Amino acid sequence: MEMAKAYSPAENEKRIYKFWEDNGYFKPIIKKGEKPFTIIMPPPNANDNLHIGHARFVFVEDILTRYWRMKGRPTLWVPGADHAGIETQYVFEKKLAKEGKSRFDYDRDTLYQMIWDYVVDNRNNMENQLRALGASCDWSRGKYTLDPAIVKVVYRTFNKLFKDDLIYRGERVVNYCVRCGTAFSQLEVDYKEQDDKLYYLDYGTVTIATTRPETIFADVAVAVNPKDKKLGSLVGKIATIPLIGREVPIIADELVEIGFGTGALKVTPAHDATDYEIGQKHNLPLISIISKEGKMQNVPEEYVGLRPKAARELTIKRLEEAKLLTKTEDLHHSVGKCYRCNTVIEPLLEDQWFIKVEKLAESALSAIENKQTTFNARKFEKTAMHWLTNLRDWNISRQIVWGIRIPAWHCAGCNKWTITAGEVPPTCTHCGSSKLTQDKDTFDTWFSSGQWPFAALEVNSKEDFDYFYPTTVMETAADILPFWVIRMMMLGIYETGETPFENVVLHGLVRDKQGLKISKSKGNVIDPVEMVDKYGSDALRMSLVWGALIENDVAVSEENIKGQKHFANKVWNAARFVLMNLEDYKIVSRETIEKELTQADKDILIKYESTLKVVTKAIEGYKLSIAAESVYSFFWHDFCDIYIENAKTRIQDNDKSKVAAQHTLDYVLRNSLRMLHPFMPFLTETIWEELKEEKPLIISLWPK
């Protein structure tokens, strides 16, 4: 059997993948009564190329999928693509900016269609990149979060939540990005440390400390903690807002932090979440002084139209002139920024759609506590439980064009909303008027993607849902645990009565060889497609599961990938040697050859069996780095460096133990290829073809 002298990924990977896909090997065979293995792919954003972080999740999920397929389980990996809401619109707006245009140059329908066309092109490219990485997912079941059938499920859930009194529209303080022009949930605010000033202002009877003097025009009270012995006597008295002379009450509230500043808090309910809570408890009025455009309003004339930063500078100047700024201190604190564009988040009073999360969160907490859903690392379980315990009502409306439009129609006559499961209502359900206007807002993308596991299966067929749900594993990035994982649990349990996945496997970041986070600004980006073109998918796969447990960050460099290419060459050369020396070998059983085995044969067989146990246990325990490193060490050092060198002499000298050596070489090679297949599928399948086996390696059974 003559193999090529060197393995060429470029000549084999596309051919092998096409062979797998064309023959339907990615599709599961449903076996009634047999438990399946199911993964629903975290759908990559359909707005850009895959990055190195995507490659890590693809490899982790593909390794698990290929392993359980070889174990004989009905195995389904459902692929998908995410419309990604604000993230896609943000990317598209940057594209428009390069062309000297903005979203404001187009009407809603035109802008939506432009983004749709842009995403279609990128989605096709992204899916081809998944193929290049070797993702053995069932493309016939692939879904897009804007597929009409998926949208229908999202509408149904929204309507059901509304009927169950878990949805409401209300005016509350939300996190608003004036640059992106939309509200965000509490989870999407990126808090960053920075140095600022703390300003002490004279309110007549009391001095308060604030980082935002420009919001004094919206103050409606001053609050002190009732346990504050120093300031408690001020409760019931009057404070005077500087510059405008408005008198406000001094109230007591336990939300005031005694140790911060002077212990007295200026209460601005329309521009701070904590102040809003205080305002609601004490029935305080709401004064909004910052618009959605990020400009001052309802303020003295000279402030109107200013940005908050400019308004702060002017306020400080006027306070100094009036001798009402008593002192200034340096302050290091965290400030909320937009997670997309880094603009400072403005807490604004806005009319938005909210989900009451308390009952939903309790059901998810119960699933974790009862081990219906487990985590691959205890630290992630603690994080999930922390968020579920501390969630506030979820703002699910976004003021953007791109996404699933909220099926809510407003009646101007009675000022109420009619909710549907997507269809246009003929009349208002409250007053019967036919003059209805649909809400312009779209759903938070996490609301629609939070329904992904059950929606992606349900829209395929009832049989798919009944057989494959709940899924076996949800594998995704650790940093979206609060954004996505806990929301999938809340909505999945609410809609189906069952947790959407049995196991949560979270992976860390991909970092460069210095341990730095990979980013374009640092110039250390590793393009996975470029690495595949250069070294082959298998080399990249091994490098991204090497040296770190899934839950930890992994350091990767081109040198690492190149090193794994050397290993691929080692496997190829070893297989080539074995096959060249099996031309006169007729397969014999272990029983027949048992007495002829030398100590070297027995040693490698024992080592193989112990390695198989380690690899099997490690994969099933999601310790993929241990599995990869174990099979690597066994094949390179034990099999190649030691055993093959021993066998060479016996075969070349036509030793009496030649057949035993040939048998052992053949047995260990075939089973090593099986062990290696989940990690290096293209290389191993190419070699397997040379062995002329009846079944391709992808559907061969895991060794026993």
Q: Any idea what the CATH superfamily of the largest domain is called?
A: HUPs
Q: In CATH terms, what is the fold-level topology of the largest domain? A: Rossmann fold
Q: What is the terminal separation in angstroms? A: 27 Å
How much of the polypeptide forms β-strand, as a percent range? Answer: 15-25%
Radius of gyration: 31 Å
The DSSP helix count reads 21
The biggest beta sheet, please? 4 strands, antiparallel
The CATH architecture assignment of the largest domain turns out to be 3-Layer(aba) Sandwich
Top-tier CATH class of the largest domain:
Alpha Beta
How many domains in all? 4
The percentage helix is 40-55%
Question: Mean pLDDT, nearest integer?
Answer: 94
The general outline is: elongated
Low-confidence stretches: none
The assigned structural class equals alpha/beta
Strand order of the largest sheet: 6-5-14-16
> How many beta-strand segments?
25
Could you explain the architecture of this structure?
With 704 residues, the chain is of the alpha/beta class. Helices cover 42% and strands 17% of the residues. The protein has four domains: 31-158 and 445-507, HUPs (Rossmann fold); 182-347, Valyl/Leucyl/Isoleucyl-tRNA synthetase, editing domain (Isoleucyl-tRNA Synthetase, domain 2), CATH 3.90.740.10; 407-440; 557-699, Isoleucyl-tRNA Synthetase, Domain 1, CATH 1.10.730. Helix 1 (9-22) crosses helix 21 (681-691). 45% of the residues are buried. Helix 2 links the parallel strand 1 and strand 2.
